[in-house]
UniProtKB/TrEMBL annotation:
Co-factor(s): pyridoxal 5'-phosphate
The protein's name in its UniProt record: Aminotransferase
Domain Aminotransferase class I/classII large, first and last residues per copy: 31-379
UniProt record similarity statement: Belongs to the class-I pyridoxal-phosphate-dependent aminotransferase family.
SUPFAM superfamilies listed in its UniProt record: PLP-dependent transferases
Length: 386
């Protein structure tokens, strides 16, 4: 059967196949250490769960406006004001089914056939795929330690073409965990604006920072499109809730798109998310951020003992991008064998990087320090046999 040629633009997300294999090994009785999926071992904070249960009990199960509950949009705007000093009109915020819903809206509004989109390589693969499904051509710019694993202003200027319409950043990034500081963000914003383009910033891991203070491009320019999520910092992965912050003139067409594409984000999840901004929940989330910082440091220390620690430690998110070129030029085979021989599940770099992915893997420090240290011991055993 013939499918739309657009589906050929979407590569498989190999980590999901690896997760399935890891879960099958676990079901067969193996002690698998899961470092492959971007989901820490924390439950949703109890105040958020309680708010969701209360919403269900109160019958809050009907549609909300397409752009989301007004109270939730106001709470998100308050977050920008309190933590980033950015005055954001709540009307500029559209609540979406996960960050994926926000990316879908942004890609359909900003990119189309004949357009070119700049983004870093490596990057979260769905970012490329959303733009490709909109008909745009993605220019994936290889980045490395020299630019802090980020698409900086110099790279944007060097790779901008006449047909380039959009530059997309991710800070902190998936898979490298690296960030742009305020000066670097401002420089990119100025470079894009000078060329008449749009700037889209993925801030999904915004609250999870260890070496730099969390920041938002919203405090630098009102013209950027910003994608964020309740999944990562707020611990609400399965609730499927995110948001898109957009310039004022884009709100009406984005609302039209939302009305037609997904109608509205899940209503109980929106009511639950109102509790994500309380003082009690913030305390829980900050404790978890500190714990993730300890996990990062433990993993870095273990890898340093093996001579594998990256030259630039991750500054945010909960990932480490590891160069395995000393041992393998096939990251997929490396990950498969590590799982089969030592029951440690990590992600092949080819999921994220078009260039160099075969020499890298992503490790998610989403489990406790003791398990991370055990994973490093198993990795050491595995590498000794290479």
């Amino acid at each position: 059967m013939a499918w739309s040629p657009r589906i050929d633009q979407v590569a498989p997300f190999r980590v999901m196949s690896l997760l399935e294999t890891a879960q099958a090994r676990e079901a067969a009785g193996h002690d698998v250490i899961h470092l492959e999926v971007g989901e820490p071992d924390f439950a949703t904070p109890e105040p958020v769960v309680a708010a969701g249960q209360a919403a269900l009990a109160a019958g809050h199960t009907r549609y909300t406006p397409a752009a989301g509950l007004p109270a939730l949009r106001e709470a998100i705007a308050g977050q920008y004001a309190e933590h980033f000093g950015a005055a954001v009109d709540p009307r500029r915020i559209l609540v979406t089914p996960g960050a994926s819903g926000a990316l879908l809206l942004a890609s359909q509004l900003l990119a189309g056939p004949g357009d070119r989109v700049l983004m870093a390589d490596p990057n979260y693969p769905c970012n490329r795929h959303f733009m490709a499904l909109a008909g745009a051509e993605v220019d994936a710019v290889p980045v490395g330690p020299a630019s802090g694993w980020q698409l900086d202003a110099e790279l944007v200027a060097a790779h901008w073409h006449d047909a380039t319409r959009l530059a997309m950043l991710a800070t902190p990034s998936n898979p490298t965990g690296h960030m742009l500081d305020a000066g670097q963000l401002a420089a990119v914003a100025e470079t894009v604006a000078a060329r008449g383009g749009h700037l889209l910033v993925d801030e999904i891991y915004q609250g999870l920072c260890y070496d730099l203070e969390p920041l938002s491009v919203a405090s630098i320019t009102p013209d950027a499109f910003v994608v964020n999520s309740f999944s990562k910092y707020f611990g609400m992965t399965g609730w499927r809730l995110g948001w898109l912050l957009a310039p004022e003139e884009a709100v009406e067409p984005l609302t039209r798109l939302a009305q037609n594409v997904f109608l509205a984000a899940p209503t109980p999840a929106q009511h639950a998310a109102l509790a994500a901004f309380t003082t009690q929940t913030r305390g829980i989330l900050e404790e978890r951020r500190a714990e993730l910082g300890r996990r990062r440091d433990a993993l870095l220390a273990g890898l340093a003992r093996l001579g594998l620690a990256p030259s630039l430690p991750p500054q945010g998110a909960f990932y480490l991008w590891l160069d395995i070129s000393r041992y393998s030029d096939d990251s997929q085979a490396f990950c498969r064998r590590l799982l089969e021989e030592e029951n440690v599940a990590i992600t092949p770099g080819i999921d994220f990087a078009l260039q160099g992915g075969e020499h890298h893997v992503r490790i998610a420090f989403t489990t406790g320090v003791e398990r991370l240290e055990e994973a490093v011991s198993r990795l050491e055993r595995f590498l000794a046999r290479q």
